[in-house]
Amino acid sequence: MASSIEYVHKDLAKLVVKHGDIDVPGVVQLHSRAIINICVFQTSDAQASRGRRHNTSSSGSQQVVPNAEIAEGKNLRLQTMIVDAVDGSIFDQAQPNVSISVSDRPYTCIGSTVQEVLVGLGDMSSSYFAGLDLALLSMRKGEESIFAATHRLGYALCSSDIIFKLTVAEVYGEIELVAPRKITKHIVHRPIEPVPDAYGFLTPVYGGQAIFLLSEIDRFTEKPIKGAGETVEIGGPDVPEWKTEALMSMQAGEYSTVRIESGAVYKLRLKEFTNPEPPRTIAKLREKIDQLKKSGNDLISRKHSRAHVRYQAGLFWLKLMQPRLIPKPDQDPESVAQLMELESLLEGNLSHALLEEGLYESAIDHATRALSLNAKAFKNYFRRAKAKKGLRQFQAAIADLNRAEDVLESLKILRESSEWKSIDDVRFEIDCEMSA
User: Above 90 in pLDDT, residue 178?
Assistant: First the structure.
């Protein structure tokens, strides 16, 4: 046990009871999440609660000092908590009226809990107080420490000093899931030895079926407000994009917190999943992608707002299976060329679907990828031009329309064709918007 007191802040003193494991990458940082066990003691007499202090030589300000006997556990009686880290159920076995004393002043336990906190953002849960973030940022996974804080770092509506014992059980950071919309996932629990499915997949894939538990979390109390079990098709047109992306990043048995772009927070626990058999030949791969492409085209014709997921699924299978089916590309250039053409078509169709949904930046990205695979696909210049027009990047849009015309001329497409008319229509729209 450490015997020396350190000062995290002039109003916050710390005495380490148990050091964290230095070999574990579990330092608490801003915006990380931590599962903590905290027990708070507070004086019952606010006027006599200024604790035990000494003057500093540098500024003359006063600092609170935790009593050494408390740190050694002689006078500190903690409430006992048991928590199920997977589903968050808490069973309180606390004894009422537990108290301690510092310099003959009584400190009473006012709360003990195990909870998950977001560090550094002023967590709005009922157990939050000003000194908690400062204390956590001085700790690492596995550490247990005693802190003493003046009333300035205590609870906002109370003028009393506090003492609290804090244990950091788990620390985990952020995983950015890249999608047309941003999702942030915090892993609470993941199996140590994940078990692959019959096809070797560790996570659900497009077209698979996932069974999971979902709870929406109140952003102020961080408590579940509603929840239910669900079974969905991964990448299905009626499944929200954030749910597809989150589930495809999870292993069976994993429990995570997901924060979506709107600010809503959900807790997900993936129970099990079943994936479709992967295509094991190039012919089967083409057949699968053609089916997905046809499904996407059908959804676009019906103005469905989630048509793009079908093209994303096609690209997923193409990129997943191509290196497995063609391990040595230089020995099978014909198959490589066929799949490259297929990839260009999928990227172009995906750009078109995103354009129809008003996701202009993503539409530009995928049109550019399509053009890098096939520079003669004039439709992708046209799609990129329309997306840039949507972002009011008029000069860049005109440049892409000029490139589309160059391709049409090289292909000797007649001026009377619908392709030329479409370009003229977009030029007219740009002129109208620029002159407005």
Answer: no
